[in-house]
Amino acid sequence: MTQNGDDVTLVRRPGVPDLRPAAPESPEPAPPQDPQADEPPQELPLDRNQAILEAAKQVGALLKRKGHLFALAGSVAAYAHGGEKNLQHDVDFAIRPEDADAVAATLREAGLTVYTPPEDWLIKATCFGQPVDIIFELAHRPVGADMLERAEELSVDSVRMPVLAPTDLLWSLIAAFSEHHCDFGAALPIARALREKVDWQRVRRECGDAPMPAAFFFLLERLNVI
User: Fold this and answer.
1) Which domain of life is it from (predicted)?
2) Mean pLDDT per 10-residue interval, the chain, length 226 residues
């Protein structure tokens, strides 16, 4: 998973007017030109965390205004619950599979780029230059109305929207671990920050005896997180 700071959006610094001296009256040779005079304006990276938050706020406000059933997920949801402002590489929203077409239409009407990737469990959009995943299957299970109705309405950088409940959020992260996706380093800070808000017995029960989630629970126990 791409870490914060990669693929940063760039903003241009206003350039300095191109000032040139008047032509000399004497036939003296012109002074040597500054080799940097024709270089493009310097580019500065934006705060990627804030850019991701702005995208989350914009998309969340659009979905809320249209009355869609949805919930913020992923690292931005963890931040809304009190986790670190160390966001991952995109914004995640959870919706029901049957709402995918309507949600895509809402985003397109607002001028966002929306497309369908090869994976059949999400659609993707771009907002303020940031990737947005609209997910209708979490940890290989369709997102249901019961999960979205358990979502808590929280302030996300001053915009209120439904956010996955902490137990559902941690389950969605841990149950997704497999031999091909096992990023304990990304999930560990979230588990530590939200540990007192999570029903860990329910998360264990929902994960069953899958080996990768079991390894993560062992790590949490050794670190005294749970």
Assistant:
1) Bacteria
2) 40 36 46 49 64 95 97 95 83 97 96 93 94 94 96 94 97 91 88 95 93 94 94
Q: What is the 3-state secondary structure (H, E, C) of 70-96?
A: EEEEHHHHHHHCCCCCCCCCCEEEEEC
Determine the Cα–Cα distance for residues 36 and 41; give it in Å rounded to an integer. Answer: 10
Q: What's the whole-model pTM score?
A: 0.77
- CA separation for the pair 167, 200 (Å, rounded): 7
Residue 11 Ramachandran class (φ > 0 left, ψ -120 to 50 alpha, else beta): beta
Query: What is the rounded end-to-end Cα distance, in angstroms, of the chain?
Result: 25
CA–CA distance, 64 with 195 (Å, rounded to integer): 28
